[in-house]
Amino acid sequence: MRIFLRHRSPTTDPLWLQALLLVTATCFMGVLVALPVAIVFAEALSRGWRAYIAAIGDPLALSAIRLTVLVAVIAVPLNLVFGIAASWAIAKFDFIGKRLIVTFIDLPFSVSPVISGLIYVLLFGAGGALGGWLTARHMQIVFAVPGLVIATIFVTFPFVARELIPLMEEQGTEEEEASIMLGASGWRTFFSVTLPNIKWGLLYGVLLSNARAMGEFGAVSVVSGHIRGQTTTIPLHVEILYNEYNFQAAFAVASVLTWLALLTLLLKRLMEFKFAGEIRAQIK
Prior knowledge:
Helix content: over 70%
Number of helices: 14
Distance between the termini: 46 Å
Shape: globular
Radius of gyration: 24 Å
Number of strands: 0
């Protein structure tokens, strides 16, 4: 006996099922995302705007904000260079060890940030493998800004590469080969052909890398030494304030990271909208 089944799409599911899925997703996002964000701002403003501004304008808070921005400004461009170089090599060339490099790129996703920070302490600390050599040359990595930058680079370097590798593999090498055959140099080919094709994926990877760099806690906490005003980023400063039972100031400073997260989401949405618009224009 032949059985004929009516083809169904998700939009033809019963109304009750659609409502159930929508309510479940909305409740999940509300409890895990919207509610914590609302609590952050409610606690930050619990003593009024003057206390809120005073907490953010505190010299130690401003120092933490400046340090967070400095670390991100150094780490993100380096990740940008690495991401482009690694993805271009992996997507455009065949060589021994390619899969191994891809595995190493994914390593920060599988290693705890705390463990990575501890490794840098054991490597660059005073009693570490390179500690004596660095001390003899009056160079300090751990418990100083260079340690924060190195730890941040480690936890953020996969983001740009991971956005570009599948994109560049899908695009292939035909356009670059055509450009080279027409007499363009390697750099001219990159800036005229490769870069325009990957610009949205590149910007998206940079955006994610910057968001993670500013919000990183585990690895930075281990290598910072928690020296207030010198090696404390925004997340570390929030932890110190919270441990001191200064909850209003802790949430006020934490709201700075929340604003940065919301800005990141807005930029992400704008890029997705712009990219979708270019795709529709190309189809037409």
